[in-house]
Design a protein that fits this description.
- The chain has 202 residues and is of the alpha+beta class.
- The chain is 43% helix and 12% strand.
- It is built from 7 helices and 5 strands; from the N terminus they run αααββαβαααββ.
- The chain is globular, with a radius of gyration of 17 Å.
């Protein structure tokens, strides 16, 4: 949910995102949150997600900032997404949480994550909820192989209590707490839904 980035956005802009070119505003927020010397850099997807409207797909190549952004603003598609994504709050990350303390990044893991991401994007564009759910699970499993510290015993227990009721799942952000993200075509208990900004000024 980009909590730290949202706090920085409030510090920077106070009450609302100002008018201006969306990507440049996101760059400003990203730089404000990650000044020189920052140990753990918050991903640019957080700043971009806060500022840019619609559904966005980011392409990265050895850099913190995407080299390409694919944008979808079709209102019917955005409404369909809102109807199928559900967030269940967990708890804040503990102060000594470190997702990078145990990392296993390799070509096979990156390829699995890339393929799951492609399948997820295609399923959403086709309004295929089951395909979206399956791709979300594949994406999550690929992440866990590379970043096993994303998940804790408490998160695992909470997730297990929902799996039989939903089409797919994921953990928000770097994990360790936050939100469980579910794909479902029916309401999920104790869950909240999102609202996607439809324009630069909404």
């Amino acid at each position: 949910m980009s909590t730290s980035s949202r706090k920085k956005a409030i510090e920077l802009w106070h009450t609302d995102i100002p008018d201006g070119e969306r990507e440049m505003l996101a760059r400003t927020l990203f730089c404000y949150e990650n000044p020189p010397g920052t140990k753990y850099v918050s991903g640019s997807q957080d700043a971009l997600g806060i500022v840019m409207p619609g559904l966005n797909r980011f392409f990265y190549r050895n850099n913190y900032w995407p080299e390409k952004i694919e944008k979808m603003t079709d209102p019917d598609l955005l409404s369909w997404i809102e109807q199928h994504i559900w967030l269940v709050p967990l708890y804040p990350r503990v102060s000594d949480y470190d997702v990078l303390a145990d990392v296993h990044i390799n070509k096979d893991g990156a390829m699995a994550l890339s393929q799951a991401s492609e399948a997820c994007w295609s399923a959403i564009l086709n309004k295929d909820a089951k395909g979206w759910g399956s791709a979300s699970v594949a994406s999550f499993e690929a992440q866990l192989k590379m970043f096993p510290n994303m998940i804790t015993r408490d998160v695992t227990d909470a997730l297990e209590s929902y799996k039989s009721q939903v089409l797919g799942w994921k953990l928000s952000g770097a994990g360790g707490g936050g939100y469980l993200v579910f794909v479902s075509d029916s309401p999920v208990r104790n869950a909240i839904q999102i609202r996607i900004r439809r324009s630069n000024f909404e």
